[in-house]
Structures are given as structure tokens and as C-alpha cells.
Amino acid sequence: MSALQLPPLSLYIHIPWCERKCPYCDFNSHEYGGALPEAQYVNALLSDLEADLPLAQQRPLVSIFIGGGTPSLLSTEAMQSLLDGVRARLPLDAECEITLEANPGSAEADKFSGFVAAGVNRISLGVQSFDDHCLQALGRVHDAEQARRAVALAQASGIASLNIDLMHGLPGQASEDARADLQQALEFAPQHLSWYQLTIERNTAFYKRPPELPLEDELGNIQAAGEDLLSAAGYQNYEVSAYAQAGYRCRHNLNYWEFGDYLGIGAGAHGKLTLPEGGEIRRTVKKRQPAEYLATGDVRANGQVLTSEDLPGDFMLNALRLSDGFAPALYQARTGLSLEKLSGTLETLAGQGLLEITAERVRPTALGRRYLDSVVSEFL
User: What is the full DSSP assignment across 142-207?
Assistant: First the structure.
């Protein structure tokens, strides 16, 4: 393993509470009752960040992503306090992207301008569907009218970039319904769209009681028609389920996919850090339960140091999600390993029509993107 270069640094902040746990959700989210302990939690987050500062290696943050749960449940005062606290502890890149995940309930949507004033410059709005029947099947707490209102309010808030999260392949959804959903989103002309198929994950209510989903042929029709719509509207499909107008790719997620570094603070938050002096790449994780996270000064849970056996799979799991793949030099810079050691696997996959390999890029083909899980498994 050669010397490691320090990659760009991002910050992920996890807010673990939501109004209702959705039946498809396997994230670390917890239904809350009563008032949120937001002041206590913000203090815990900033203490968590303080303890992780040596891992930052004096790098500025290129992005901050506040995810959940439902981060937009926080008051604008708590958001201001949180972001002020981050800025007091770490420098921010001049073009630092600060994303807040939000749900379209009216109580949260009215706070968008306050979040922008606190420093948020990108909102990711969890619409999932503009169809009331689909929203009910997904267990969402908002309806279609609230979703449309939230998009309009977000755009009126002065936000620099808006992402709309939209699912397809929903219970009882026909291809024409999915197309209408996507067409509705495109009429708002958001700078970014995350458009992805519903999958049934373990440890969810849907896994225990699976809903009836569209058949494989129908899913294929939905995907093909949706890609045509998005392309015609000028959106670039730069990652498996990410579509952006020119200049609006998600900087935070790109840093993940290009195997950059990120601090993770909050209940259950994960991080990935490069320690060049020891030649280590370390994954960190914080205590998962909010009550435990708040009750103790030491919020660290078990992390791990990635070995030379772990790194190829970890890198490819991220980098091959990108339509443009990665430059061969990036692999060595991020992992300290030579790509030559993977030449046999790469050539086999290229021979199967799953990868395209040139001196400048290693990228998945259209077929490789369709069977990406199988491609990545070759490196695990």
C-alpha cells in the first residue's frame, strides 16, 4: 500500500426523529412524542464534532448534509445554533454545499426561509409521490397538495438548489401513474431529482408484510419511460438514481461516491476518514439510540480500520455508481493500492460487456449499470 492522499472532507449530521416511521424505511429513525429535546441534541452534536476534530486534519468542509429522520422538524433557532456551532469549529469551503432533508408537512415547509437564513443552500424534499393513493400506501404523513405546496414554498425561500426525492414501482402503481408523477415533478423544474425504485429492505414493516408491487416488465417500462422524460427535460443521469441540471450535481454525495472523507455526527451516524500518517482508512460509527447518544459523553460505537482486502470492494461499491465511473489514478490516490492488482477482474468484466476501460476512465456500461450489484460483488 502506497502513501495515502488526503481527500476532500464532508460532514454528515443525523437527526434521528420523525413524526411517523414509514413502512419501507430502514434508516435510524424514531417516532417522537411531545417536544423534541433539540437544544440538548444540538449541544450533543457539537460535542461529538469537537471530539472528532483531530480527524479533520485541518481540512475545510466541502459539504454538509443534515439527514434523518426528519431534520426539518428542528426549529429555525436550533438550525441556526447548529450551523453556527459547526462554522465555529471547522472552516467551510467558499462553495460549501449545505443540504437539509425535509418532509412536505405544512408545519415544516413554512420554516424554509429560516433554514436558508441559517445557511442551508440546498433542500432535499422527500415528496416520494404526488399521488394520494401512493402516498397512503407508503404510509406518508403528507398528501399530494401538501407536497406541491412544499415545493413551491421551498422555491420561494431563495434556496440555491432544490432536490425532489421521488419513488417509482410503488404498490398498485401502473407505468402511466409513475410517468404522471415524474411529469409533475418536472413541471416544477427542480435543479436535481433523485428518482429511484422502491425496494423492500430487511427490518421494515414492508419486509414483514410485503405489499404487491409492479411486475418486472412493468418496472422496466417505468424505468425506460422515465429516463426518456428526464433526458428530454435536460437532466443528466450522473449516478444510478441521481439526475441533475447542468452544474447542480450533489456535491456531498459525489464526495461519497468518489471515496472522499466525511465526519459523521449524531445518533447512529457513520464516518469515513483517511489517516495518512498511519496509512489507515477508518470507518467510524456513533451510538444508535437517541437516548443513549444523549445520556453519555462518549458517543463512539465500534468502528473499523479498512484492510487492503476491504478497500477494493468499498471503493468500487461507491465509484461504480457513477455514470462516468472513475479515473484509474483516483483508485490509487484514495486507497493506496495499485489498480493493476485488479486487472484480471476488470478485464473479465470488460469482456462480459459490463465495464468500459480506457486510459482515462473505468466506467460501467449500460448493461453493467443494470447488473451493478453483480459487478461490484466481484470486488468484495
Answer: S-HHHHHHHHHHHHHTT-SEEEEEEEES-TT--HHHHHHHHHHHHHT--SEEEEEE----TTSHHH
